[in-house]
Amino acid sequence: THLTGFKNALTKTFNDYARKNKLLKDNEESLSPASGFSLSAVQILTGIWILGMGFSLLRLILDYHQVKKLLMARGRRISRQSPQGRLLRQLCRKMQIRKIPPLMVSRSAPTPMAIGFFNPSIVLAPELLDHENLDLILMHELIHLKQKDLWKKVLLSAAQTIHWFNPLVWLMNNQAENDIEMACDQRLLKDQPKEVRAVYGR
């Protein structure tokens, strides 16, 4: 059966690992179902869960680094003395953010975003540098940084990696990310006049 073949494959993997790490000598008898070694259904499911978790974690890491590499390779840093750089400094002072994040522009940026955990940057598409609502766009990303939303998304991704088999966790993750964006927008527009709210909502 397929289950027997899978158990035999796991047994072979275990024997190879044991010999490689000197847990089992070459002249010693290999562990096998015939010699009394067998894998229970719990052990098999645990192995599948670990493999799935490892694959999910690897995919997240590779996707993140690929996106960051693409953004930085096709991007350039905006000078702090430029109008956009001065606006960013003013907003940081207004929002009591001590560490001013670098402002990057990249044609690979589909939307404004904050990227990086320990030294985050704000990345914009080139056409947004002269946008009439650039202050609101920058404030949105600064709110994400101030509220540590990037780290919240890391925790959500960790939960999704551990529970990769559960579709409800995937739905929870998507809903939580939407809630984070909505909370950011609400905080941004809280003290803004109606005219600004109408423009931002377009």
Structural overview:
There is one protein chain. This protein has helices at residues 2-20, 41-73, 83-94, 134-146, 149-162, 167-189, 194-200; strands at 75-77, 103-106, 113-115, 121-124. The longest helix is centred in the first third of the chain and has 33 residues, at 41-73. A four-stranded mixed β-sheet has the order 1-2-4-3, sandwiched between helices. It has 202 residues and is an alpha+beta fold. The model has no long low-confidence stretch (mean pLDDT 84). The protein has seven helices and four strands; from the N terminus they run ααβαβββαααα.
Major sheet description: 4 strands, mixed
* Cα gyration radius (Å): 25 Å
What share of the residues does DSSP label as strand, in percent? Answer: 5-15%
Tell me the total number of β-strands. Answer: 4
* Portion in helices: 55-70%
Give the oligomeric state.
Answer: single chain
Q: List SSEs in N-to-C order.
A: HHEHEEEHHHH
How are the strands of the biggest sheet laid out side by side? 1-2-4-3
Put simply, the count of helices is: 7
| First-to-last CA distance | 59 Å
Secondary-structure class: alpha+beta
Low-confidence stretches: none
